[in-house]
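Pipeline run #58 for the internal structure catalog. This entry was flagged by the ingest filter as a single-chain record with no existing model, so it goes straight to prediction. Upstream metadata was stripped on purpose; only the residue string is passed forward. Reviewer on rotation: M.T. Logging verbosity set to normal.
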Amino acid sequence: MKFYKIINNMKNLKVICLIVLFLISASNVLLAQNIKPTAYQKRQLELSKKYFQIFYGYNMTMADEAFYNQLAEGNDAQEFLLAMGILSYAMNNSEAQVKKVLTQMEYEYEQAEKLKTAVDYQREKDAKYAKTDAGKIKAQIKEEFENWNKKGEFES
């Protein structure tokens, strides 16, 4: 009986985590629509989908892949999904199997690093800056200025 409760709790945890992740990444999805992904970002997304399916033991349909592409927009979202998958996989598989899969995953991600261009490095730098206090203040000032600068209905 306890085993079924644990499984139900894990399923509920997965659903809750996916919903929270979706809400957090929704703003990133809207902002990222105007930015064309690089080869490195495309490869990272492919690897993320591959290991998501391995960790959860789930084959995605085309609709699932489209939803996952939106959900996993951005490095933080992909890392979160993979971390939850690793936890789930580790609970249901032997330590040797987990190490084998993680070693393969690490190798493939290292190979993807070779695809990085100057654009990728700049995006990483910008993302790190945006998380600092100075970056947050700058973004808030920009947002407040844009709100203040909006013209009303009767302004020319």
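catalog note: Residues 118-148 form one domain.
catalog note: The CA atoms of residues 29 and 73 lie 6 Å apart.
status: ready for reviewer M.T.
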